[in-house]
Specification:
Strand content: 35-45%
Radius of gyration: 24 Å
Mean pLDDT: 94
Largest sheet: 8 strands, mixed
């Protein structure tokens, strides 16, 4: 099928690439401790890119009838008449395919059983909780071929599951969320339930914090919110547009010298060997000991910048490829989480935000309401804080670090590995 489309396109265009996606999802959802829905979702489709007359054309379809292939090529050619100019070539080198399959994929009955077990644990330990559980078994197959001879496929499956627990008392709503993704056929949910139970335990007492500058520990989950401006700043596309915070800062110090951040596609939930344009991927260091070392590019932005593509052309479903990162790792430091807590006379821990990502992602400025945070007094967590927010700047904060946790943790998505970080001083603003 893919080669048939290539053969048709090759009659009319200078070069062509066909990307095939097949995805099956099996979600099971529990709401307020009861089974709410089970369903199965399937996506199959093709995305075609052509280079014609030095311009790029793109079209996609979920109609895989062979009689429609000529029309798909025609649409891509028509778009090419108005497409972006191309000064790059499709890959010519062969890339390694990958096949990562679970030994015993779960069915609906297994997912339902796991969901009921999670709710059973929560009701036994914390009877007041209202629990929502989502489980999803996802199976995907991706194939990419082009007119230069590249042919590769990637197959994988995994289970993702999450638990959100609420306790409602009078005007107070406590909401705790944890999630995890795994390729292990034996779904062990203890890590998620234990984290939620520990958080609920630390939330029994409530405190008000006065407006002041305080030491603040960001958990790995909170770090994912704080670092939202980092990826756009590292994008070669943003550099070309002049909107990157890191423009003209290559090989200069941009963060604390203890910070090293890199991309390693071979790690994470889904290890990768090639990107969605058929370019081989590799480990890339973006910040090393606080110094900016590089940016990431897809084929189009690398051509515009006159640099080599970095294997960072990825797609969302059947969309066109654009610059993005895969598995990002923030290296650990030399303190345990407990040691960071014990070092604080007065401060807070932040775990969840409301409206994360709503700050200025270009400048790094943020003003975030704390959805879940805790007060530290004399080296101990004493309870939950309410009605306060944090304000500051991500890039300034990365130069104002006291400690970095020694054991980074993979976030629930399985493609970000972050440590907890203790920042010396941040502006904590009380709503009262």
């Amino acid at each position: 099928m893919l080669n048939e489309i290539l053969d048709i396109a090759s009659k009319y265009v200078d070069a062509a690439e066909v990307y095939y996606l097949e995805s099956n999802a099996t979600p099971v959802n529990f709401e307020v401790n009861k089974l709410k829905s089970t369903e199965s979702k399937e996506t199959r489709g093709i995305a075609l890119r052509v280079i014609k007359g030095g311009k790029l054309g793109f079209a996609s379809t979920t109609d895989l009838e062979p009689s429609k292939f000529e029309q798909l090529v025609k649409y891509a050619m028509e778009i090419a008449d108005f497409g972006a100019e191309v000064n790059w070539a499709l890959p010519t080198h062969q890339v390694e395919s990958s096949n990562l399959k679970m030994k015993s994929p779960p069915d609906f009955d297994k997912l339902i059983s796991v969901g009921r077990d999670i709710i059973g644990v929560m009701k036994e330990k914390e009877p007041e909780t209202l629990n929502n559980v989502s489980l999803n078994y996802t199976k995907s197959r991706e194939v990419i071929v082009n007119s230069n001879g590249v042919s590769a496929h990637r197959e994988y499956d995994y289970v993702s599951y999450s638990l959100s627990s609420q306790i409602i008392k009078n005007n107070d709503i406590l909401y705790v969320y944890e999630g995890l993704a795994t390729i292990d056929s034996d779904i062990s949910y203890n890590k998620v339930t234990n984290k939620v139970l520990e958080t609920l335990k630390n939330s029994k007492a409530m405190f008000q914090v006065n407006t002041k500058a305080l030491p603040v520990i960001f958990t790995p989950k909170a770090m994912s919110s704080l670092l939202i401006p980092l990826e756009p700043a590292l994008s070669g596309k943003s550099v070309l547009q002049g909107s990157s915070y890191f423009s003209k800062k290559l090989n200069t110090k941009v963060a604390d010298e203890r910070i090293t951040i890199y991309e390693d596609p071979s790690q994470g939930l889904i290890p990768l060997t090639f990107d969605d344009e058929g370019v081989p991927v590799s480990k890339k260091t973006y910040i090393e000991n606080g110094v900016l070392k590089g940016f990431y590019y897809d084929l189009q932005t690398a051509g515009e910048a006159k640099v080599k593509p970095t294997g960072n052309g990825f797609r969302g479903g059947l969309s066109d490829a654009s610059p993005s990162v895969s598995n990002i790792i923030f290296e650990g430091g030399d303190k345990t989480f407990q040691e960071m807590v014990e070092s604080i006379e007065e401060g807070i821990i932040v775990d969840q935000f409301l409206g994360a990502g709503q700050g200025n992602t270009l400048s790094g400025a943020f003003s975030l309401n704390i959805a879940l945070g805790f007060l530290i007094e004399k080296g101990k967590i004493v309870g939950r804080i309410k009605d306060c927010m944090l304000s500051g700047n991500t890039f300034t904060a990365l130069n104002n670090i006291k400690y970095i946790e020694k054991n980074p943790d993979w976030l629930g998505s399985g493609n970000r590995k972050y440590p907890a970080v203790l920042f010396d001083n941040m502006n904590v603003v009380s709503k009262k």
